[in-house]
Design brief:
With 139 residues, the chain is an alpha/beta fold. It has 5 helices and 5 strands; from the N terminus they run E-H-E-H-E-H-E-H-E-H.
């Protein structure tokens, strides 16, 4: 899979932050599927477009948090989700770790950190797909 073929969905309630992340991702060579600011739209886009990775803020517009959206997406679609948050309290970070094992970044974060997390999530996704494919062939 080439970088430009990697489709990333950004779920962030602050448009300025989301736009900056989009520019950074595109400068790294990734494709950005879109930007949404709430959990409902994130779930709908995950279902409709199946992004390769989702960057998810914990605090979103609307009633649903990023943690709740992540749980629903993970249960239904298995898309790797990387959290981005300004919240550094232990309770929030522990909740984020429970919801997704693909990384948590506190704002601000470096391009190198982001790129490493994306690459690790892609490797994990590819390995999961490969292992599931092997299991199906065994049955």
């Amino acid at each position: 899979m080439q970088l430009k073929d990697t489709r990333i969905l950004i779920v962030e309630d602050e448009i300025v932050v989301a736009s900056e992340i989009k520019l950074r991702l595109e400068a790294m060579g990734y494709g950005v599927l879109g930007i949404v600011n709430n959990g409902r739209e994130a779930i709908e886009l995950a279902e409709r477009h199946e992004p390769d990775i989702i960057l998810m803020d914990i605090t979103l517009k609307g009633k649903m948090t990023g943690l709740e959206a992540t749980r629903e997406i993970a249960k239904s679609y298995g898309i790797p989700i990387i959290f981005i948050t300004a919240h550094t309290d232990k309770t929030t970070l522990d909740s984020a770790r429970e919801a997704s094992s693909h990384g948590i970044f506190t704002k601000p974060f470096s391009d190198a950190e982001l790129q490493a997390a994306i690459q690790q999530a892609l490797i994990s996704k590819i390995m999961s797909t490969y292992i599931e494919g092997d299991e199906e062939q065994l049955n």
